[in-house]
Amino acid sequence: QVQLVQSGAEVKKPGASVKVSCKASGYSFTSYFIHWVRQAPGQGLEWMGIINPSGGYPTYAQQFQDRVTMTRDTSTSTIYMELSSLRSEDTALYYCTREWRTDAFDIWGQGTMVTVSS
Amino acid sequence: QSGLTQPASVSGSPGQSITISCTGTSSDVGGYVYVSWYQQHPGKAPKLMIYDVTNRPSGVSNRFSGSKSGNTASLTISGLQAEDEADYYCSSYTSSSAYVFGTGTKVTVL
Predict the structure, then answer these.
(1) Per-residue confidence at A103, pLDDT binned at 50, 70, 90?
(2) Cβ neighbours around B16 below 10 Å, total
(3) A105 vs A90, B37, B45, B50, CA distance in Å?
(4) What's the pLDDT tens digit per position in A10-40?
(5) How far is A100 from A92, CA to CA, in rounded Å?
(6) Residues near A75 by Cβ (< 8 Å), separated by ≥ 6?
(7) Does the beta-carbon distance from B45 to A109 stay under 8 Å?
(8) Which residues in chain A are contacts of B35 at CB distance < 8 A?
(9) Chain A residues with CB-CB distance to B under 8 A?
(10) What is the phi/psi pair of residue A103, to 5°?
Protein backbone atom coordinates (compact mmCIF):
# COMPACT_ATOMS: atom_id res chain seq x y z
CA GLN A 1 0.00 0.00 0.00
CA VAL A 2 0.99 3.64 -0.30
CA GLN A 3 3.07 4.59 2.71
CA LEU A 4 5.87 6.71 4.07
CA VAL A 5 8.06 5.05 6.69
CA GLN A 6 10.34 7.23 8.77
CA SER A 7 13.48 6.47 10.73
CA GLY A 8 13.46 5.98 14.47
CA ALA A 9 13.62 8.37 17.39
CA GLU A 10 16.77 10.41 18.00
CA VAL A 11 18.31 12.08 21.04
CA LYS A 12 20.80 14.83 20.32
CA LYS A 13 22.80 17.38 22.28
CA PRO A 14 22.44 21.11 21.65
CA GLY A 15 24.53 22.22 18.70
CA ALA A 16 24.46 18.82 17.02
CA SER A 17 22.72 17.84 13.77
CA VAL A 18 20.07 15.24 13.07
CA LYS A 19 19.17 13.50 9.82
CA VAL A 20 15.72 11.94 9.49
CA SER A 21 14.77 9.64 6.63
CA CYS A 22 11.42 9.03 4.96
CA LYS A 23 11.09 5.99 2.67
CA ALA A 24 8.26 5.98 0.16
CA SER A 25 6.58 2.86 -1.21
CA GLY A 26 3.49 1.84 -3.12
CA TYR A 27 3.54 4.70 -5.62
CA SER A 28 5.75 6.45 -8.17
CA PHE A 29 8.36 8.15 -5.99
CA THR A 30 9.19 10.94 -8.43
CA SER A 31 5.57 11.92 -9.11
CA TYR A 32 4.74 13.65 -5.84
CA PHE A 33 6.46 16.36 -3.82
CA ILE A 34 7.33 15.62 -0.19
CA HIS A 35 6.95 18.13 2.65
CA TRP A 36 8.33 18.12 6.17
CA VAL A 37 6.16 19.28 9.06
CA ARG A 38 7.05 19.30 12.74
CA GLN A 39 5.03 19.38 15.93
CA ALA A 40 6.52 20.31 19.29
CA PRO A 41 5.02 18.52 22.32
CA GLY A 42 1.50 19.82 22.93
CA GLN A 43 1.84 22.37 20.13
CA GLY A 44 0.55 22.85 16.60
CA LEU A 45 1.87 21.92 13.18
CA GLU A 46 4.75 23.86 11.63
CA TRP A 47 5.67 23.65 7.95
CA MET A 48 9.40 23.26 7.34
CA GLY A 49 9.81 22.87 3.60
CA ILE A 50 9.26 20.90 0.42
CA ILE A 51 11.37 18.87 -1.98
CA ASN A 52 10.70 17.61 -5.47
CA PRO A 53 11.85 13.96 -5.52
CA SER A 54 12.32 14.18 -9.27
CA GLY A 55 14.78 17.03 -9.49
CA GLY A 56 15.62 17.97 -5.92
CA TYR A 57 14.92 21.73 -5.84
CA PRO A 58 13.98 22.13 -2.17
CA THR A 59 12.19 25.18 -0.79
CA TYR A 60 12.56 25.91 2.91
CA ALA A 61 10.47 27.89 5.36
CA GLN A 62 12.18 31.16 6.15
CA GLN A 63 12.70 30.30 9.83
CA PHE A 64 14.71 27.18 8.91
CA GLN A 65 16.47 28.56 5.83
CA ASP A 66 19.99 28.46 7.25
CA ARG A 67 19.69 25.24 9.26
CA VAL A 68 17.76 22.70 7.20
CA THR A 69 18.77 20.60 4.21
CA MET A 70 16.39 18.32 2.32
CA THR A 71 17.74 15.74 -0.10
CA ARG A 72 16.54 12.66 -1.91
CA ASP A 73 17.88 9.31 -3.11
CA THR A 74 15.88 8.09 -6.06
CA SER A 75 17.59 4.69 -6.00
CA THR A 76 15.99 3.91 -2.64
CA SER A 77 12.91 6.17 -2.87
CA THR A 78 14.02 7.96 0.27
CA ILE A 79 13.83 11.60 1.32
CA TYR A 80 16.14 13.01 3.99
CA MET A 81 15.77 16.05 6.24
CA GLU A 82 18.82 17.27 8.11
CA LEU A 83 18.53 19.96 10.78
CA SER A 84 21.70 21.48 12.20
CA SER A 85 22.64 23.63 15.20
CA LEU A 86 19.96 21.95 17.25
CA ARG A 87 18.52 23.70 20.28
CA SER A 88 16.00 22.61 22.89
CA GLU A 89 13.19 24.29 20.96
CA ASP A 90 13.75 21.81 18.13
CA THR A 91 12.46 18.99 20.30
CA ALA A 92 9.48 17.81 18.29
CA LEU A 93 7.84 15.09 16.26
CA TYR A 94 8.96 15.43 12.66
CA TYR A 95 6.63 14.23 9.89
CA CYS A 96 7.14 13.75 6.18
CA THR A 97 4.02 13.99 4.07
CA ARG A 98 3.13 13.56 0.42
CA GLU A 99 1.61 16.38 -1.58
CA TRP A 100 -1.11 14.63 -3.55
CA ARG A 101 -2.03 17.92 -5.19
CA THR A 102 -1.35 21.55 -4.30
CA ASP A 103 -2.34 22.06 -0.64
CA ALA A 104 -3.41 18.45 -0.10
CA PHE A 105 -1.12 16.35 2.07
CA ASP A 106 -2.72 12.93 1.81
CA ILE A 107 -0.14 10.45 3.12
CA TRP A 108 1.83 11.02 6.30
CA GLY A 109 4.75 9.18 7.83
CA GLN A 110 4.45 7.86 11.36
CA GLY A 111 6.60 10.69 12.69
CA THR A 112 10.12 10.74 14.12
CA MET A 113 10.64 12.09 17.61
CA VAL A 114 13.75 14.24 17.94
CA THR A 115 14.74 15.19 21.46
CA VAL A 116 17.40 17.84 22.04
CA SER A 117 18.80 17.71 25.55
CA SER A 118 22.13 18.19 27.24
CA GLN B 1 5.20 33.84 8.75
CA SER B 2 3.05 33.45 11.86
CA GLY B 3 0.32 30.85 11.99
CA LEU B 4 -3.18 31.33 10.69
CA THR B 5 -5.57 32.23 13.51
CA GLN B 6 -8.00 29.59 14.76
CA PRO B 7 -10.09 29.49 17.95
CA ALA B 8 -8.38 27.42 20.62
CA SER B 9 -11.45 25.33 21.27
CA VAL B 10 -14.94 24.67 19.97
CA SER B 11 -17.51 22.35 21.51
CA GLY B 12 -20.91 20.96 20.66
CA SER B 13 -23.36 18.25 21.57
CA PRO B 14 -23.85 15.10 19.48
CA GLY B 15 -25.92 15.85 16.42
CA GLN B 16 -25.21 19.55 16.45
CA SER B 17 -23.18 21.52 13.90
CA ILE B 18 -20.04 23.44 14.69
CA THR B 19 -17.85 25.76 12.63
CA ILE B 20 -14.13 26.38 13.00
CA SER B 21 -12.70 29.57 11.53
CA CYS B 22 -9.24 30.10 10.07
CA THR B 23 -8.17 33.70 9.53
CA GLY B 24 -5.19 34.75 7.47
CA THR B 25 -4.34 37.54 5.07
CA SER B 26 -4.59 38.36 1.38
CA SER B 27 -1.14 36.77 1.02
CA ASP B 28 -2.40 33.36 2.01
CA VAL B 29 -6.03 32.38 2.72
CA GLY B 30 -7.50 35.33 0.89
CA GLY B 31 -5.27 35.05 -2.14
CA TYR B 32 -5.59 31.38 -3.10
CA VAL B 33 -8.03 28.49 -3.33
CA TYR B 34 -5.35 26.34 -1.71
CA VAL B 35 -6.79 25.97 1.78
CA SER B 36 -7.00 22.58 3.41
CA TRP B 37 -8.09 21.13 6.75
CA TYR B 38 -6.59 18.30 8.81
CA GLN B 39 -7.95 16.24 11.68
CA GLN B 40 -5.53 14.92 14.28
CA HIS B 41 -6.41 12.46 17.02
CA PRO B 42 -4.05 12.16 20.02
CA GLY B 43 -0.90 10.28 19.15
CA LYS B 44 -1.82 10.03 15.48
CA ALA B 45 -0.63 11.71 12.30
CA PRO B 46 -2.87 14.37 10.75
CA LYS B 47 -5.55 13.27 8.29
CA LEU B 48 -6.62 15.30 5.26
CA MET B 49 -10.31 16.26 5.53
CA ILE B 50 -10.76 19.13 3.04
CA TYR B 51 -8.61 20.49 0.21
CA ASP B 52 -8.98 23.38 -2.26
CA VAL B 53 -11.29 25.11 0.27
CA THR B 54 -14.33 22.91 -0.37
CA ASN B 55 -13.30 19.49 -1.68
CA ARG B 56 -13.45 16.25 0.32
CA PRO B 57 -11.02 13.41 -0.41
CA SER B 58 -12.54 10.03 -1.06
CA GLY B 59 -13.56 8.36 2.18
CA VAL B 60 -14.14 11.51 4.21
CA SER B 61 -17.67 11.87 5.55
CA ASN B 62 -19.91 14.43 3.87
CA ARG B 63 -20.61 15.78 7.36
CA PHE B 64 -17.42 17.78 6.85
CA SER B 65 -17.60 20.82 4.60
CA GLY B 66 -15.40 23.82 3.88
CA SER B 67 -15.92 27.38 2.73
CA LYS B 68 -14.10 30.69 2.45
CA SER B 69 -14.99 34.36 2.58
CA GLY B 70 -12.26 36.92 2.10
CA ASN B 71 -9.31 36.12 4.35
CA THR B 72 -11.24 33.63 6.50
CA ALA B 73 -11.81 29.97 5.75
CA SER B 74 -14.18 27.78 7.71
CA LEU B 75 -14.69 24.10 8.43
CA THR B 76 -18.18 22.97 9.39
CA ILE B 77 -18.90 19.63 11.01
CA SER B 78 -22.56 18.73 10.90
CA GLY B 79 -24.23 15.93 12.86
CA LEU B 80 -21.39 16.01 15.39
CA GLN B 81 -20.28 12.55 16.57
CA ALA B 82 -18.05 11.38 19.40
CA GLU B 83 -15.39 10.29 16.91
CA ASP B 84 -15.08 13.89 15.67
CA GLU B 85 -13.43 14.88 18.94
CA ALA B 86 -9.90 15.79 17.85
CA ASP B 87 -7.63 18.70 16.98
CA TYR B 88 -8.22 20.43 13.66
CA TYR B 89 -5.72 22.48 11.66
CA CYS B 90 -6.16 24.61 8.59
CA SER B 91 -3.37 25.13 6.08
CA SER B 92 -2.86 27.58 3.25
CA TYR B 93 -0.46 28.10 0.39
CA THR B 94 1.21 31.51 0.58
CA SER B 95 2.60 34.18 -1.72
CA SER B 96 6.11 33.14 -0.65
CA SER B 97 5.58 29.74 -2.31
CA ALA B 98 5.41 28.27 1.17
CA TYR B 99 2.71 26.82 3.38
CA VAL B 100 1.41 27.93 6.75
CA PHE B 101 -0.71 26.04 9.25
CA GLY B 102 -3.33 27.37 11.59
CA THR B 103 -2.85 27.52 15.34
CA GLY B 104 -5.16 24.54 15.82
CA THR B 105 -8.61 24.03 17.34
CA LYS B 106 -9.57 21.40 19.88
CA VAL B 107 -13.06 20.10 19.20
CA THR B 108 -14.90 18.66 22.20
CA VAL B 109 -18.08 16.63 21.89
CA LEU B 110 -20.10 17.29 25.04
Answers:
(1) confident
(2) 13
(3) 23, 10, 11, 10
(4) 999 999 999 999 999 999 999 999 999 999 9
(5) 24
(6) none
(7) yes
(8) 103
(9) 35, 37, 44-47, 50, 59, 61-62, 95, 97, 100-106, 108-111
(10) 75, 5
